[in-house]
Amino acid sequence: MVEPNLKHDDSHLHYIAITAIIHKDGRYLITKRSPNEKAFPNMWTVPGGRIDAKDYVDTPKNTPSAWYGEVENTLRREVREEVNLEIENIKYLVDMTLLRPDGIPVVVLSYYADYKTPEVSSTSYKSGEVKLDDDATEFAWVTPEEAEKYELIEGIYEEIVMADKFRRGVSFSSVKFEPRKY
Q1: Contact 111, 21 (CB under 8 A)
Q2: What is the CATH number of the domain that holds 154?
Q3: Residue 65 included in any domain
Q4: Closest CA to 86 of 95, 74, 77
Q5: Which residues contact 157 (CB under 8 A, 6 or more apart)?
Q6: Is the pLDDT score of 4 beyond 50?
Q7: Is residue 29 situated within a structural domain?
Q8: Rounded to whole angstroms, how far apart are CA atoms 105 and 79?
Q9: Is 91 inside a domain boundary?
Q10: Taking Cα atoms as reference points, which of 39, 19, 36, 40 lies closest to residue 28?
Q11: Using CA atoms, how far apart are residues 159 and 179, in angstroms rounded to an integer?
Q12: Domain count, the chain
């Protein structure tokens, strides 16, 4: 089988990003973006990042021609790298598209997940306490009501509200993205 060419013309090129609304004890993790970020500097958001071909091309395929589960694997890695946490019970929340200030189109896949309590392990990696990488300068665990007081990237508050509804048992079919009135 011939491997696909990863180059595309610009009209088909998108960044694909993934984010995690992480729940722990009735609160959700938000982080403040670095002032050096191209998109939304100094604004509050949730952990996540871009999916790159390098996230999967060097791993074995699940079928002869494709990789399955790589979005979730990348999300776990991004959360681990950005905030030093492990997550579990990952569920799809909503998708969103945008054009960055530099004109690059972005597809964002948002998920919600539970904080995974650390297990005693023989590895040197320790999850459990938030430790930020260079992409963020601050963090907070907030309730949906508290989140509304932060300067969040547009849509993040609504996603936290959606995740909170699901966590409380509201059915997926009855929860929709509802933009705030500013």
Answers
A1: yes
A2: 3.90.79.10
A3: yes
A4: 77
A5: 144, 147, 148, 180
A6: no
A7: yes
A8: 23
A9: yes
A10: 19
A11: 10
A12: 1
